[in-house]
Protein backbone atom coordinates (compact mmCIF):
# COMPACT_ATOMS: atom_id res chain seq x y z
CA UNK A 1 0.00 0.00 0.00
CA UNK A 2 1.33 3.43 -0.83
CA UNK A 3 0.64 6.94 0.34
CA UNK A 4 1.19 9.71 -2.16
CA UNK A 5 -0.62 13.02 -1.66
CA UNK A 6 0.35 14.04 -5.21
CA UNK A 7 -2.11 11.45 -6.52
CA UNK A 8 -5.02 13.63 -5.38
CA UNK A 9 -6.49 15.23 -8.50
CA UNK A 10 -6.86 18.88 -7.51
CA UNK A 11 -9.09 20.02 -10.39
CA UNK A 12 -11.51 17.14 -9.89
CA UNK A 13 -11.59 17.63 -6.14
CA UNK A 14 -12.42 21.34 -6.25
CA UNK A 15 -14.41 22.06 -9.43
CA UNK A 16 -16.00 25.20 -7.92
CA UNK A 17 -12.55 26.71 -7.23
CA UNK A 18 -11.16 26.36 -10.75
CA UNK A 19 -12.53 29.80 -11.71
CA UNK A 20 -10.47 31.42 -8.92
CA UNK A 21 -7.30 33.21 -10.02
CA UNK A 22 -4.06 31.42 -9.10
CA UNK A 23 -2.72 32.72 -5.80
CA UNK A 24 1.02 32.14 -5.46
CA UNK A 25 1.70 29.75 -2.58
CA UNK A 26 5.09 31.14 -1.50
CA UNK A 27 7.67 29.39 0.62
CA UNK A 28 6.77 28.09 4.07
CA UNK A 29 8.86 29.44 6.93
CA UNK A 30 11.47 27.23 8.63
CA UNK A 31 9.31 26.60 11.69
CA UNK A 32 6.74 24.70 9.59
CA UNK A 33 8.75 21.50 9.37
CA UNK A 34 7.24 18.06 9.17
CA UNK A 35 8.56 14.52 8.99
CA UNK A 36 7.98 12.68 5.72
CA UNK A 37 5.47 9.82 6.10
CA UNK A 38 7.40 6.58 6.66
CA UNK A 39 8.06 3.89 9.28
CA UNK A 40 6.59 0.52 10.22
CA UNK A 41 3.66 1.74 12.30
CA UNK A 42 2.79 4.33 9.64
CA UNK A 43 2.47 1.50 7.11
CA UNK A 44 0.39 -0.62 9.50
CA UNK A 45 -2.01 2.30 9.99
CA UNK A 46 -2.21 2.76 6.22
CA UNK A 47 -2.91 -0.96 5.73
CA UNK A 48 -5.77 -0.92 8.29
CA UNK A 49 -7.30 2.18 6.70
CA UNK A 50 -7.09 0.71 3.18
CA UNK A 51 -8.18 -2.83 4.04
CA UNK A 52 -11.30 -1.59 5.88
CA UNK A 53 -11.98 0.95 3.10
CA UNK A 54 -11.98 3.85 5.53
CA UNK A 55 -11.43 7.51 4.82
CA UNK A 56 -9.27 9.74 7.01
CA UNK A 57 -9.17 13.49 7.16
CA UNK A 58 -5.41 13.13 7.60
CA UNK A 59 -5.17 12.17 3.91
CA UNK A 60 -8.14 14.05 2.52
CA UNK A 61 -7.12 17.38 4.03
CA UNK A 62 -3.43 16.79 3.25
CA UNK A 63 -2.56 17.25 6.92
CA UNK A 64 1.11 18.05 7.49
CA UNK A 65 1.24 15.91 10.65
CA UNK A 66 0.35 12.59 9.02
CA UNK A 67 3.88 11.17 9.35
CA UNK A 68 4.00 11.83 13.09
CA UNK A 69 0.38 10.89 13.90
CA UNK A 70 0.18 7.66 11.91
CA UNK A 71 3.51 6.51 13.31
CA UNK A 72 1.74 6.69 16.70
CA UNK A 73 -1.37 4.93 15.29
CA UNK A 74 -3.35 8.12 15.63
CA UNK A 75 -5.60 8.86 12.68
CA UNK A 76 -8.85 10.77 12.38
CA UNK A 77 -11.59 8.85 10.63
CA UNK A 78 -13.76 10.83 8.26
CA UNK A 79 -17.23 9.34 7.86
CA UNK A 80 -20.08 9.83 5.38
CA UNK A 81 -17.86 9.76 2.31
CA UNK A 82 -15.08 11.79 0.77
CA UNK A 83 -17.18 14.51 -0.83
CA UNK A 84 -18.40 17.56 1.06
CA UNK A 85 -21.51 19.56 0.16
CA UNK A 86 -19.89 22.85 1.21
CA UNK A 87 -16.95 24.57 -0.39
CA UNK A 88 -14.94 26.40 2.27
CA UNK A 89 -12.10 28.34 0.70
CA UNK A 90 -9.46 26.94 3.08
CA UNK A 91 -10.33 23.26 2.91
CA UNK A 92 -8.73 20.54 0.80
CA UNK A 93 -11.54 17.99 1.16
CA UNK A 94 -13.20 17.28 -2.21
CA UNK A 95 -16.49 19.07 -2.91
CA UNK A 96 -19.46 18.08 -5.03
CA UNK A 97 -22.41 15.70 -4.92
CA UNK A 98 -21.82 12.97 -2.34
CA UNK A 99 -22.78 9.30 -2.66
CA UNK A 100 -25.41 7.56 -0.55
CA UNK A 101 -24.43 6.80 3.03
CA UNK A 102 -22.69 3.46 3.54
CA UNK A 103 -24.71 1.73 6.27
CA UNK A 104 -21.80 -0.57 7.15
CA UNK A 105 -19.33 2.24 7.70
CA UNK A 106 -20.07 2.71 11.43
CA UNK A 107 -19.29 -0.97 12.00
CA UNK A 108 -16.06 -0.78 9.98
CA UNK A 109 -14.93 2.20 12.05
CA UNK A 110 -15.73 0.19 15.19
CA UNK A 111 -13.65 -2.74 13.87
CA UNK A 112 -10.73 -0.46 12.94
CA UNK A 113 -10.66 1.16 16.39
CA UNK A 114 -10.66 -2.30 17.95
CA UNK A 115 -7.98 -3.72 15.61
CA UNK A 116 -5.75 -0.71 16.11
CA UNK A 117 -6.25 -0.91 19.89
CA UNK A 118 -6.95 2.82 20.15
CA UNK A 119 -7.44 4.34 23.61
CA UNK A 120 -8.86 7.52 22.13
CA UNK A 121 -10.36 8.03 18.69
CA UNK A 122 -11.37 11.11 16.73
CA UNK A 123 -14.20 10.86 14.21
CA UNK A 124 -14.96 13.72 11.86
CA UNK A 125 -17.09 13.95 8.72
CA UNK A 126 -17.75 15.86 5.57
CA UNK A 127 -20.73 18.23 5.72
CA UNK A 128 -23.82 16.44 4.42
CA UNK A 129 -26.33 19.22 3.83
CA UNK A 130 -28.11 16.85 1.42
CA UNK A 131 -29.32 14.59 4.27
CA UNK A 132 -32.44 15.40 6.28
CA UNK A 133 -30.59 15.12 9.61
CA UNK A 134 -27.20 16.23 8.16
CA UNK A 135 -25.85 12.80 9.13
CA UNK A 136 -26.62 12.95 12.87
CA UNK A 137 -27.85 9.33 13.02
CA UNK A 138 -24.72 8.15 11.22
CA UNK A 139 -22.66 9.75 13.99
CA UNK A 140 -24.89 8.11 16.60
CA UNK A 141 -24.39 4.69 14.98
CA UNK A 142 -20.63 5.19 14.69
CA UNK A 143 -20.32 6.15 18.37
CA UNK A 144 -22.45 3.07 19.24
CA UNK A 145 -20.28 0.74 17.14
CA UNK A 146 -17.06 2.01 18.72
CA UNK A 147 -18.53 1.67 22.24
CA UNK A 148 -19.73 -1.86 21.42
CA UNK A 149 -16.35 -3.06 20.11
CA UNK A 150 -14.12 -1.04 22.46
CA UNK A 151 -15.99 0.07 25.59
CA UNK A 152 -12.86 1.57 27.18
CA UNK A 153 -11.97 3.78 24.22
CA UNK A 154 -12.74 7.45 24.66
CA UNK A 155 -14.48 9.07 21.70
CA UNK A 156 -14.00 12.55 20.31
CA UNK A 157 -16.26 13.73 17.52
CA UNK A 158 -15.63 16.64 15.18
CA UNK A 159 -18.84 17.11 13.21
CA UNK A 160 -20.16 20.00 11.12
CA UNK A 161 -22.92 22.27 12.39
CA UNK A 162 -25.91 20.04 11.41
CA UNK A 163 -27.30 23.27 9.89
CA UNK A 164 -28.26 24.31 13.41
CA UNK A 165 -30.92 21.57 13.68
CA UNK A 166 -31.27 21.17 17.46
CA UNK A 167 -33.03 17.78 17.21
CA UNK A 168 -30.11 16.41 15.21
CA UNK A 169 -27.58 17.96 17.59
CA UNK A 170 -29.42 16.61 20.66
CA UNK A 171 -29.43 13.07 19.20
CA UNK A 172 -25.65 13.20 18.89
CA UNK A 173 -25.26 14.64 22.40
CA UNK A 174 -27.39 11.78 23.80
CA UNK A 175 -24.96 9.29 22.21
CA UNK A 176 -22.50 10.71 24.76
CA UNK A 177 -19.18 11.24 23.02
CA UNK A 178 -16.44 12.10 25.53
CA UNK A 179 -15.44 15.21 23.59
CA UNK A 180 -17.67 17.26 21.29
CA UNK A 181 -15.35 19.23 19.06
CA UNK A 182 -16.61 21.72 16.52
CA UNK A 183 -14.33 24.26 14.94
CA UNK A 184 -15.18 27.93 14.59
CA UNK A 185 -12.19 28.00 12.18
CA UNK A 186 -11.91 31.77 11.81
CA UNK A 187 -13.14 35.14 13.07
CA UNK A 188 -16.72 36.21 12.18
CA UNK A 189 -15.61 38.99 9.78
CA UNK A 190 -14.01 36.39 7.49
CA UNK A 191 -16.93 33.92 7.40
CA UNK A 192 -18.45 35.19 4.12
CA UNK A 193 -15.21 34.50 2.21
CA UNK A 194 -13.67 31.64 4.20
CA UNK A 195 -16.68 29.64 5.45
CA UNK A 196 -19.55 30.89 3.27
CA UNK A 197 -21.89 27.97 4.05
CA UNK A 198 -21.53 28.36 7.82
CA UNK A 199 -22.67 30.92 10.39
CA UNK A 200 -20.47 31.99 13.29
CA UNK A 201 -23.21 32.20 15.91
CA UNK A 202 -24.83 28.96 14.72
CA UNK A 203 -21.57 27.15 15.47
CA UNK A 204 -21.26 28.87 18.86
CA UNK A 205 -24.85 27.95 19.74
CA UNK A 206 -24.14 24.31 18.89
CA UNK A 207 -21.24 24.21 21.36
CA UNK A 208 -23.27 26.00 24.01
CA UNK A 209 -26.07 23.46 23.50
CA UNK A 210 -23.73 20.56 24.28
CA UNK A 211 -22.91 22.08 27.68
CA UNK A 212 -26.55 22.96 28.37
CA UNK A 213 -27.73 19.40 27.70
CA UNK A 214 -24.81 17.43 29.13
CA UNK A 215 -22.15 19.39 31.02
CA UNK A 216 -20.11 16.20 31.53
CA UNK A 217 -19.12 16.22 27.83
CA UNK A 218 -15.96 18.20 27.13
CA UNK A 219 -16.29 20.83 24.40
CA UNK A 220 -13.48 21.87 22.14
CA UNK A 221 -13.11 24.31 19.27
CA UNK A 222 -10.35 25.39 16.93
CA UNK A 223 -9.15 28.39 14.97
CA UNK A 224 -6.82 28.60 11.98
CA UNK A 225 -4.77 31.76 11.90
CA UNK A 226 -3.03 33.38 8.97
CA UNK A 227 -6.15 34.27 6.98
CA UNK A 228 -6.01 38.00 7.72
CA UNK A 229 -7.50 38.08 11.21
CA UNK A 230 -6.20 40.47 13.88
CA UNK A 231 -5.16 39.69 17.45
CA UNK A 232 -8.12 41.74 18.74
CA UNK A 233 -10.53 39.67 16.66
CA UNK A 234 -9.00 36.45 18.03
CA UNK A 235 -9.40 37.81 21.58
CA UNK A 236 -13.09 38.43 20.86
CA UNK A 237 -13.55 34.88 19.55
CA UNK A 238 -11.90 33.56 22.71
CA UNK A 239 -14.32 35.60 24.83
CA UNK A 240 -17.25 34.23 22.81
CA UNK A 241 -15.95 30.69 23.29
CA UNK A 242 -15.60 31.16 27.03
CA UNK A 243 -19.12 32.62 27.19
CA UNK A 244 -20.28 29.36 25.55
CA UNK A 245 -18.32 27.44 28.22
CA UNK A 246 -15.90 25.80 25.77
CA UNK A 247 -13.22 23.83 27.61
CA UNK A 248 -10.44 23.47 25.09
CA UNK A 249 -9.19 25.79 22.33
CA UNK A 250 -6.81 24.75 19.56
CA UNK A 251 -5.06 27.31 17.35
CA UNK A 252 -2.89 26.42 14.35
CA UNK A 253 -1.40 28.05 11.27
CA UNK A 254 -3.48 27.93 8.06
CA UNK A 255 -1.55 26.41 5.17
CA UNK A 256 -2.81 26.97 1.63
CA UNK A 257 -3.50 23.56 0.03
CA UNK A 258 -3.47 24.66 -3.66
CA UNK A 259 -3.09 27.85 -5.70
CA UNK A 260 -6.90 28.03 -5.98
CA UNK A 261 -7.48 28.18 -2.20
CA UNK A 262 -7.50 31.24 0.07
CA UNK A 263 -3.98 32.69 0.33
CA UNK A 264 -1.95 32.77 3.54
CA UNK A 265 -1.95 36.42 4.64
CA UNK A 266 0.50 35.95 7.49
CA UNK A 267 2.63 33.19 8.98
CA UNK A 268 2.28 33.69 12.72
CA UNK A 269 5.68 33.11 14.35
CA UNK A 270 6.22 30.61 17.22
CA UNK A 271 6.55 33.62 19.56
CA UNK A 272 3.22 35.00 18.38
CA UNK A 273 1.66 31.60 19.00
CA UNK A 274 3.05 31.69 22.55
CA UNK A 275 1.34 35.06 22.97
CA UNK A 276 -1.97 33.56 21.78
CA UNK A 277 -1.53 30.65 24.18
CA UNK A 278 -0.94 33.03 27.12
CA UNK A 279 -4.00 35.05 26.13
CA UNK A 280 -6.17 31.91 25.96
CA UNK A 281 -4.94 30.65 29.32
CA UNK A 282 -5.69 34.02 30.89
CA UNK A 283 -9.25 33.77 29.61
CA UNK A 284 -9.79 30.56 31.55
CA UNK A 285 -9.81 27.66 29.09
CA UNK A 286 -9.18 24.31 30.77
CA UNK A 287 -6.77 23.41 27.95
CA UNK A 288 -4.99 25.34 25.24
CA UNK A 289 -2.97 24.08 22.30
CA UNK A 290 -1.51 26.84 20.15
CA UNK A 291 1.43 26.09 17.87
CA UNK A 292 1.97 26.49 14.13
CA UNK A 293 1.27 22.78 13.51
CA UNK A 294 -1.62 22.40 15.95
CA UNK A 295 -4.65 20.82 14.28
CA UNK A 296 -7.89 20.05 16.08
CA UNK A 297 -7.08 16.34 16.30
CA UNK A 298 -3.33 16.67 16.79
CA UNK A 299 -2.20 14.84 19.97
CA UNK A 300 -5.89 14.38 20.78
CA UNK A 301 -5.36 11.28 22.94
CA UNK A 302 -2.70 12.82 25.20
CA UNK A 303 -4.66 16.06 25.34
CA UNK A 304 -7.82 14.24 26.39
CA UNK A 305 -6.02 12.72 29.39
CA UNK A 306 -4.73 16.18 30.37
CA UNK A 307 -8.17 17.69 29.87
CA UNK A 308 -9.71 15.18 32.25
CA UNK A 309 -6.97 15.82 34.79
CA UNK A 310 -7.44 19.58 34.52
CA UNK A 311 -11.16 19.25 35.20
CA UNK A 312 -10.59 16.95 38.17
CA UNK A 313 -8.10 19.45 39.63
CA UNK A 314 -10.56 22.30 39.14
CA UNK A 315 -13.37 20.32 40.79
CA UNK A 316 -11.08 19.33 43.68
CA UNK A 317 -10.11 22.98 44.20
CA UNK A 318 -13.78 23.98 44.29
CA UNK A 319 -14.55 21.25 46.84
CA UNK A 320 -11.74 22.45 49.12
CA UNK A 321 -13.00 26.05 48.94
CA UNK A 322 -16.57 24.92 49.67
CA UNK A 323 -15.41 22.86 52.68
CA UNK A 324 -13.45 25.79 54.21
S1 LIG B 1 -3.30 16.17 13.17
FE1 LIG B 1 -5.28 15.12 12.95
S2 LIG B 1 -5.74 15.23 10.76
FE2 LIG B 1 -3.54 15.67 11.00
S3 LIG B 1 -2.56 13.67 10.72
FE3 LIG B 1 -2.88 13.99 12.94
S4 LIG B 1 -4.83 12.97 13.33
FE4 LIG B 1 -4.72 13.26 11.13
Report on the structure:
By secondary structure, the protein is of the alpha/beta class. The chain is globular. Strands 1-4-5-6-7-8-9 form a seven-stranded parallel beta sheet, sandwiched between helices. The mean pLDDT is 93. The longest helix is centred in the C-terminal third of the chain and has 24 residues, at 300-323. The protein is built from twelve helices and nine strands. The structure holds iron/sulfur cluster (SF4). Iron/sulfur cluster binds at residues 57-58, 63, 65-66, 69, 74-76, 295, 297-298.
Widest sheet: strand order? 1-4-5-6-7-8-9
Shape: globular
Ligands, ions, cofactors: iron/sulfur cluster
> Average pLDDT value?
93
Largest sheet: 7 strands, parallel
Q: Rg from C-alpha positions?
A: 19 Å
Query: What's the total count of β strands?
Result: 9
Q: Which structural class matches the secondary elements?
A: alpha/beta
What percentage of amino acids are in beta strands?
Answer: 5-15%
Uncertain spans: none
Helix content bin: 25-40%
H/E series: HHHHEEEHEHEHEHHEHEHEH
In short:
This protein has 324 residues and is of the alpha/beta class. 40% of the residues lie in helices and 12% in strands.
Show the helix and strand layout.
Blueprint: H1 10-13, H2 40-51, H3 57-60, H4 66-71, E1 76-79, E2 83-84, E3 94-95, H5 105-116, E4 120-125, H6 136-149, E5 154-158, H7 166-174, E6 179-181, H8 191-194, H9 200-213, E7 218-225, H10 231-243, E8 248-253, H11 270-282, E9 287-290, H12 300-323
Parallel strand pairs: 1-4, 2-3, 4-5, 5-6, 6-7, 7-8, 8-9
Helix pairs in contact: 5-6, 6-7, 7-9
The structure holds iron/sulfur cluster.
Iron/sulfur cluster binds at residues 57-58, 63, 65-66, 69, 74-76, 295, 297-298.
Amino acid sequence: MTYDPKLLDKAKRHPEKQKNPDRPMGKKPDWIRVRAPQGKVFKETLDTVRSLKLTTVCEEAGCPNIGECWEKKHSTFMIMGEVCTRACSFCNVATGKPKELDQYEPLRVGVAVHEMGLKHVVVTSVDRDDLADSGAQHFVKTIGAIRFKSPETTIEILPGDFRGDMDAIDAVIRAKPDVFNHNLETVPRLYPTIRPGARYFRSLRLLQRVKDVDPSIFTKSGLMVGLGETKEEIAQVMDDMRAADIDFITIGQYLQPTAKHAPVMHFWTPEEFEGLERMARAKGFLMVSATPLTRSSYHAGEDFARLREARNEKLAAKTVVAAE
